[in-house]
Write a structure and sequence with these properties.
By secondary structure, the chain is an alpha+beta fold. The protein has three domains: 171 residues, Fumarate Reductase Cytochrome B subunit; 62 residues, no CATH class; 191 residues, Sulfite Oxidase, Chain A, domain 2, CATH 3.90.420.10. The protein has 17 helices and ten strands. Helix 8 packs antiparallel against helix 12. The chain is elongated, with a radius of gyration of 32 Å. The structure holds the ligand Nc1nc2c(c(=O)[nH]1)N[C@H]1C(S)=C(S)[C@@H](COP(=O)(O)O)O[C@H]1N2 and molybdenum atom. Ligand MTE binds next to loops. Keywords: Membrane, Transmembrane, Transmembrane helix.
Length: 451
């Protein structure tokens, strides 16, 4: 056990070393947990473990913040100690900026419930950007300062020392040239020897000065850029492209065969919202299901007077309306000003004739796994919609088409994709993510009326 005094008695160097190595391990664990959390395609495989993993990521983040706090009092001395080492100072500034940015954006994402979505969006962008830059940097830092590379460096130095003097000039040209180029007064008498010695120096100067260690460092850097570069480029393009044409890109690869396509209402065709701003991250807990109009069905059942089943063609005859609303995921991203066209849920419920014993509305996805539920009051909010079109086009397969639920005032885990069944029930149903640790209360932050 180290007491506080024990810690302070340690030399600055020892304390810095301890903080440095703990920090390295914490960063590694944060990277692994963070990357696993961010992969949309394995959300289903992770299940409830996802929530545990997120909690772990947050705890690790808190430890990392504590390390910064522990380091803060040593900053001045440390800075002074490395005054002659520009690259180490640059590294320190960069690493502190990274840690600070990660921490601040991480705390915002952690406390998302008490903050407006725009804050979370910005925090997520910063968190992701720093990860794209910081993790490859940390990897490079770890490789270029590894014992393995230091050993290569020692080998280089040993090899240089063993070489004849003219070749040594190649290893450290600046330092050795003047000495080697000056002919010994005694040797100057032998013109041929002087000539060949001089030529050797010139030849050595022509040789590449790259040592094995610096070559390996360069190679590691290049490999990292090649490995991470293209994915980073795609991410940057996606993150900063707010033209809203990604839904169109997604639609181009659509696996659904729903015919005839739904004809958009005028407001929808005109895209009165101006086009969705931002990008959807495609989430699913199953394989992405595909649907065809000849087998697709939609049902409203349970505690209702008039249970119904519709074929695609019949479903398209239901009266639709158009609304513009924002879409917020609990993980921090949003898509603003989506122009949705569909059937208001309350109209479907009214037509079905909800019986007095019904208290909740349960939603079934055609993926046969995902479900969620709303209380009857929540389900009857004006903007809860069984949506068929987005920005005047059929909802693409990957975004939950042909038909998905939209609950704009709640986080999007309530917005069941590939919706095919609605059931009126009398007991509360715990939805897919709620059963795995998400809160049943999914209200998005709203600005409070001033009192
Ligand atoms: N069937 C189904 N619906 C779902 C999900 C899912 O995994 N499966 N994910 C939910 C979550 S957490 C979000 S944020 C949104 C994501 O919608 P998108 O994939 O169209 O961006 O869908 C919600 N509805
Ligand atoms: Mo979500």
């Amino acid at each position: 056990m180290h007491s506080k005094r024990g810690w302070l008695k340690q030399s600055l160097g020892k304390r810095l070393n301890a903080i440095h190595s703990i920090n390295a391990w914490i960063l590694l664990l944060l990277t692994i947990t963070g990357i696993v959390l961010s992969i949309g395609a394995i959300r289903g495989d992770l299940g409830g473990f996802r929530v545990t993993l997120k909690q772990l990521h947050i705890y690790l983040g808190v430890v990392s913040i504590l390390l910064i706090v522990l380091y803060a009092p040593m900053l001045r001395k440390h800075w002074h100690q490395i005054r002659d080492k520009r690259s180490r100072r640059a590294n320190l500034v960069f690493v502190l900026a990274l840690l600070f940015g990660w921490s601040a954006s991480g705390v915002i994402l952690w406390q998302f419930r008490y903050l407006p979505p725009a804050w979370n969006n910005t925090a997520l962008l910063i968190h992701d950007l720093l990860t794209w830059v910081g993790v490859p940097y940390a990897l490079y830092h770890a490789i270029s300062r590894s014992r393995w590379l230091k050993r290569q460096q020692r080998l280089d130095q040993a090899a240089a020392a063993a070489r004849p003097p003219a070749q040594q000039a190649a290893a450290t040209p600046a330092a050795s040239v003047p000495a080697a180029a000056q002919p010994e007064p005694a040797a100057a008498t032998d013109a041929a020897a002087a000539r060949s010695a001089a030529q050797a120096v010139i030849a050595a100067l022509k040789a590449s000065p790259i040592t094995r260690a610096s070559f390996l460092r360069l190679a590691a850097g290049l490999l990292l850029v090649i490995a991470v570069g293209p994915a980073f480029y795609r991410w940057v393009k996606g993150a900063f492209d707010t033209g809203g044409n990604t839904a169109a890109e997604i639609a181009a690869l659509d696996g659904n065969r729903m015919l005839p396509p739904p004809a958009p209402l005028p407001d929808s065709a005109a895209v009165i919202g101006g086009g969705a701003q931002g990008n959807f991250r495609i989430y699913t807990v199953t394989e992405i299901p595909a649907f065809a109009s000849d087998t697709w069905q939609f049902a409203v059942s349970g505690l209702v007077d008039h249970p119904s089943v519709w074929s695609w063609e019949q479903f398209l005859n239901l009266k639709r309306t158009v609304q513009v609303s924002d879409f917020h995921c609990v993980t921090g991203w949003s898509v603003y000003k989506c122009t949705w066209e569909g059937i208001p849920l309350k109209e479907l419920l009214a037509a079905a004739g909800v019986q007095p014993s019904a208290k909740y509305v349960k939603f079934y996805s055609g993926d046969k796994v995902y479900t969620d539920a709303l209380s009857l009051d929540q389900a009857e909010m004006d903007d809860v919609m069984v949506a068929v079109l987005l920005d005047g086009k059929p909802i693409p397969q990957k975004l939950g088409g042909p038909v998905r639920l939209i609950v704009p005032k709640m986080y999007a885990y309530k917005s069941v994709k590939w919706l095919q069944g609605i059931e009126l029930i009398d007991k509360e149903h715990i939805g897919y993510w709620e059963a795995r640790g998400y809160r049943n209360d999914a209200w998005v932050w709203v600005e409070q009326e001033p009192v």
